[in-house]
């Protein structure tokens, strides 16, 4: 149904700006939390894994910051790109990888298990 009422259209865009700001701020907070968790447990990660996860998280965080700097916080575009149809699943997967890699047990070959214990 086409929107003929300007007030309805203006209200829709104002709501999109609020929704975008909420989404972007929550995504940035989740990413900052994951980065802080990684920094605290840096010794648990393999160096290449740590660098890859950190670089990906920072890249997605920079995308969110870029949308926050736009007028109306990016509006519908930011909701689409950072939401469930855009980077949202990537952010979820990265944060899950941060948890999984930090909580995994390091492999110790059987021959060295008595020495490592």
Automatic annotation (TrEMBL):
Top-level taxonomic group: Bacteria
Name by which UniProt lists this protein: Uncharacterized protein
Upper classification of the organism: Bacteria, Pseudomonadati, Pseudomonadota, Alphaproteobacteria, Sphingomonadales
